[in-house]
Write a structure and sequence with these properties.
This protein is an alpha+beta fold. It has helices at residues 21-28, 52-69, 96-106, and strands at residues 36-38, 42-48, 74-78, 81-86. The chain has a domain at 38-108: Transcriptional coactivator/pterin dehydratase (Gyrase A, domain 2), CATH 3.30.1360.20. The longest helix is centred in the middle third of the chain and has 18 residues, at 52-69. The two termini are 21 Å apart. The chain binds ligand H2B. Ligand H2B binds at residues 11, 70-72, 87-90.
Length: 108
């Protein structure tokens, strides 16, 4: 199996099941520390920067990867702090796509 950051997000059919607790645990182990699971439905991580300009450069890079992968995070920017939230709308929870994008963001 390729490392997560080298995999590609794939479109998922609606109605496919989201990851269960066991799958979430397995995939969380492949991410950097700092990611949190909420309600088994989304993962999030806060990134803190020196200033607004650096935070925005990071957000632009996240946006570029998200468009490339066609998998889109929620992004909350508060001055120099950025929170990334990932969840797969098409399955109503977490899928491999969320963890692939998280691993790519971890590897910036
Ligand atoms: N982003 C997220 N976060 N969840 C999705 O289910 C999703 C997406 N679906 N980006 C993608 C687009 C889908 O509409 C396309 C066809 O791949």
């Amino acid at each position: 199996m390729l490392p997560l950051k080298e995999r590609k997000c794939e479109p998922l059919e609606k109605g496919k099941n989201p990851f269960d607790k066991e799958k979430i645990r397995e995939y969380m182990e492949m991410l950097q520390p700092g990611w949190h699971v909420s309600d088994d439905k989304k993962i999030s991580r806060k990134f803190l920067f020196e200033n607004f300009k650096r935070a925005m450069a990071f957000v632009q890079e996240v946006a570029r990867i998200a468009e490339q992968e066609q998998h889109h995070p929620d992004i909350c920017i508060s001055y120099a702090d950025v929170e990334i939230e990932l969840s797969t709308h098409d399955v109503g929870g977490l899928s491999e796509n969320d963890f692939i994008l998280a691993a790519k963001i971890d590897s910036f």
